[in-house]
């Protein structure tokens, strides 16, 4: 019988293959086949963000109150439907609705997945290792998805690849429904949100991570939109789609290799904090380097450094938060941090847009990331269970 942790990691890998590959093809489909304008593309992103921001915490409360496993199943049903439907329409209105549904689907999975595996393993010392393996699976699955579903779209049609990826996501939801057990979950329907907020407010560690999540994750999405523009500015001489697909593959593999090196030490009390701090510092150096890189090779190396460090920071952040919460409100607490992620993306995106100067935007972002890394590295925090026992 397959080990529960291994089953979780394999599911994470499959989901990454499907949704990462689907988005690569969809991002081209929206421009080339649907012929959406720049303003329409921006509106879709805004609508997705609003749906996620509004529904994230309620979905986390549902997972804690009713079921983590069935929250994941609902996520798959919504996600697969949104993915499949995207390939069936080419006008702005229906596409806006499919992408909003896509954003909603993630709120049911965010936090519920970590909460489910933490409960079912019932082994605090083993959970960080499984979560780190899952982060590696996300990265290697991204590579397979980019290459596999991208190739499928090239061999057939973009809409065909999109529909097939959506159908496969629905089938993966069926796998969760039948193969994931839920034997240790205890439903709690009273004051879940209030208890989750109280836990975060009462923990210095969680407040620091919350602030770092707002800044670091917010900058990750905002700065990521500037990579292509900066390389074009320094004189990119290769087809941008081909070049950035290659960078995506290299970045994902480098991130997976880094996580593999860290994995034997992740059970240490302070490993997640130190890993988070190093990832922030590396991302800051990469973004700063990109601002001054004089040519495409140096700029690409800076992008690999920054884009590779951001997912590591996110992964270490999840593990760090998970160590400082407890089963009763675990999904809700993770959803609160996901909401900080979305809010940070909105605020940081608006701030960088207001700056308008590309060089200043990158330098400022790099400095903020380094500052957050130093803040986390210089902090004196308690052990991983210091705040998890404050509320019962």
TrEMBL record:
The keyword Secreted does not apply. The chain crosses the membrane at residues 38-63, 70-89, 137-155, 161-180, 201-221, 241-262, 274-292, 298-321, 333-353, 359-382. InterPro entries: MFS_DHA3_Transporter, MFS_trans_sf. Keywords: Membrane, Transmembrane, Transmembrane helix. This is Major facilitator superfamily MFS_1. The lineage of its organism: Bacteria, Bacillati, Actinomycetota, Actinomycetes, Micromonosporales.
């Amino acid at each position: 019988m397959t080990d529960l942790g291994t089953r979780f990691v394999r599911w994470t890998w499959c989901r990454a293959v499907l949704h990462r590959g689907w988005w690569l093809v969809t991002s081209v489909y929206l421009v080339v086949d649907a012929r959406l304008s720049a303003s329409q593309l921006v509106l879709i992103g805004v609508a997705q963000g609003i749906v996620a921001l509004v529904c994230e915490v309620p979905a986390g409360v549902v997972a804690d109150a009713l079921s983590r496993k069935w929250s994941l199943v609902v996520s798959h049903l919504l996600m697969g439907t949104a993915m499949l439907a995207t390939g069936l329409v080419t006008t702005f209105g229906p596409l806006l609705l499919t992408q909003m549904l896509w954003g909603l689907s993630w709120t049911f999975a965010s936090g519920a997945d970590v909460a489910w595996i933490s409960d079912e393993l019932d082994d605090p010392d083993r959970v960080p290792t499984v979560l780190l393996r899952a982060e590696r699976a996300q990265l290697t699955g991204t590579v397979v998805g980019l290459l596999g579903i991208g190739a499928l779209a090239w061999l057939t049609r973009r809409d065909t690849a999109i529909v097939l990826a959506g159908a496969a996501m629905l089938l993966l939801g069926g796998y969760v429904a039948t193969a994931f057990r839920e034997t240790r979950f205890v439903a709690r329907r009273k004051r879940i949100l209030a208890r989750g907020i109280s836990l975060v407010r009462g923990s210095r560690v969680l407040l620091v991570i919350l602030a770092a999540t707002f800044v670091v994750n917010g900058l990750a999405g905002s700065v990521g939109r500037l990579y292509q523009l900066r390389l074009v500015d320094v004189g990119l001489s290769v087809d941008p789609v081909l070049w950035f697909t290659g960078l995506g593959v290299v970045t994902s593999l480098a991130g997976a290799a880094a996580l593999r090196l860290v994995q034997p030490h992740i059970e240490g009390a302070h490993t997640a904090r130190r890993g988070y701090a190093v990832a922030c510092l590396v991302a800051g150096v990469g973004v700063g380097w990109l601002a001054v890189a004089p040519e495409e090779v140096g700029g690409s190396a800076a992008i690999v450094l920054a884009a590779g460090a951001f997912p590591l920071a996110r992964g270490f952040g999840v593990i760090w938060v998970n160590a400082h919460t407890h089963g009763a409100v675990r999904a809700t607490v993770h959803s609160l941090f996901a909401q900080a992620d979305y809010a940070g993306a909105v605020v940081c995106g608006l701030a960088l847009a207001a700056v308008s100067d590309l060089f200043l935007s990158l330098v400022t972002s790099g400095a903020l990331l380094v500052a957050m890394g130093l803040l986390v590295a210089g902090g004196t925090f308690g052990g991983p269970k210091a705040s998890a026992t404050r509320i019962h």
